[in-house]
Amino acid sequence: MSQWLKEKLGWIGLVVTVLIGFFPGWFAKIGQEIKNAIVEYWLQLSIAVIIALLVAIYLRVVHRE
Hints:
Number of strands: 0
Number of helices: 3
Structural class: mainly alpha
Oligomer: single chain
Shape: flat
Radius of gyration: 18 Å
Order of helices and strands: HHH
Strand content: under 5%
Largest sheet: none
């Protein structure tokens, strides 16, 4: 899956760029909603990121042994 994504990344970027060019208001609305969610839930998001990083570190240590 990762190799497929690497091969198609240029086309995916091109499609997203064209969509943003044709529908700027739609993407601005999505960006505004993301900003509002981050402002409203910054503490929960910070805790989730910390937990995800701790899990990633734990899994890396466990798989190394």
